[in-house]
Design a protein that fits this description.
The structure is a single chain. This protein has 12 helices and 12 strands. It is α/β, with parallel strands linked by helices. The protein folds into 2 domains: 204 residues, Alpha-Beta Complex (inorganic pyrophosphatase (n-terminal core)), CATH 3.90.1640; 118 residues, Diaminopimelate Epimerase, Chain A, domain 1. The strands form 2 sheets. A 6-stranded parallel sheet has the order 3-2-1-4-5-6, sandwiched between helices. Strand 4, helix 4 and strand 5 form a beta-alpha-beta unit. Helix 2 packs parallel to helix 5, helix 2 runs antiparallel to helix 6 and helix 5 packs antiparallel against helix 6. The longest helix is centred in the first third of the chain and has 17 residues. The site of manganese (II) ion has 6 residues, from loops. This is 3'-to-5' oligoribonuclease A.
């Protein structure tokens, strides 16, 4: 499998690495790590990393060289590269429906082999797949791929930082998910290769806007509804509140996890009004499968303990629906 990946990469002159809409820390981290690695070992190939729309401001520090290309900001140029790419590597998602307009550009390219590196469940078939739903992040799968091909020595500080970003953000700072011995061994290697976790933790957690911190305080104090008897809680956020706190893309990141910090709560829902729908995020602790709940009720899915979906209707209707789900827990 690793040999086939090497053959595909060395035969390709234009490699497109792509990740999903509303890119999170794992999308940006795994994509950047792979892009930096491919540029280092195949310097004669053109490797470029595209995401459909902008990543949140609190991740800006992760891309000092501007290696993440935002499709929406330069559609013609991105389309031209994607259409003519001779290898497409898909990281941290597996349904091209998550690409919005970028999927059209991809559909134009019928000849490039497609490689998947991902940890989301139920992937369709790709030409080559590095897939494990048991992996805590896509960055961990990228790490395994890099080390299998080129060894630990090829990991420099900037690759180590990108890998760490993906691993730490998908596990809530190594507090949930599949925290395996192999993951902790990997962290040791990343530190050996130049990573300073303190620097990255500070950049990740302590670079929020004042409005965002105030929004979190408001949501916790005024908007969190706790159903102790059902060990459940939820938070809602509507357009007027988003405007009041100058909501930016990425500001909703992590809000759904807040209710889980209440003793005795192991199901959390976050509902956010958007132009299209009410976006639903669900989290759980233990055996409660929110992927199934999202599939059944909210046109979505994800993982057992973290999933998302959409509700088409008003916020009031969404709340009624979520309360009904909670009542049935
Ligand atoms: Mn991920």
């Amino acid at each position: 499998m690793y040999e086939k990946f090497q053959t595909l990469c060395s035969n390709a002159s234009r490699i497109a690495i792509i990740s999903h809409t509303n890119p999170d820390g794992d999308a940006i981290g795994s994509g950047l790590a792979l892009t930096r690695f491919l540029r280092d070992i195949y310097p004669n190939n053109k490797s470029r990393f595209f995401v459909p729309n902008h990543f949140p401001q609190f991740l800006a520090w992760a891309d000092p060289e501007g290696d993440v290309e935002v499709f929406k900001e330069n559609v013609a140029e991105a389309e031209a590269f994607l259409a003519a790419a001779d290898l497409i590597i898909i990281v941290d998602f597996n349904q091209t429906s998550r690409l919005e307009q970028m999927s059209k550009a991809l559909d134009m390219n019928l000849f490039a082999p497609r490689v998947l590196i991902d940890h989301h469940i139920n992937p369709p078939q790709y030409d080559l797949m590095f897939h494990s739903a048991a992996s805590s992040s896509t960055a961990f799968l990228v790490y395994e791929l890099i080390v299998s091909i080129a060894g630990e020595e090829v990991i420099n500080k900037s690759i180590a930082e990108a890998l760490y970003l993906g691993m730490m953000s998908d596990t809530g700072g190594f507090s949930f998910g599949n925290l395996t011995p192999a993951l902790y061994r990997t962290l040791a290697v990343l530190v050996e290769r130049g990573l300073n976790p303190v620097e990255i933790n500070r950049a990740f957690y302590n670079t929020q806007s004042e409005d965002r911190v105030r929004l979190m305080g408001y949501l916790v104090s005024e908007k969190m509804v706790v159903k102790s008897a059902k060990r459940a809680a939820y938070i809602t956020l509507d357009d007027a509140e988003k405007e009041k706190y100058k909501f930016q893309i990425g500001d909703s990141e992590g809000i759904v996890n807040i209710p889980l910090s209440v003793n005795g709560i192991d199901f959390s829902a976050f509902m956010m009004q958007t132009k299209e729908c009410i976006k639903i995020s669900l989290r759980s602790v233990g055996d409660l499968d929110v992927n199934v709940i999202c599939n059944e009720h909210f046109n979505g899915g994800g993982h057992r303990n973290a999933a998302g979906g959409k509700f088409f209707g008003t916020m009031e209707q969404a709340v009624v629906k979520v309360e009904a789900v909670i009542a049935g827990l």
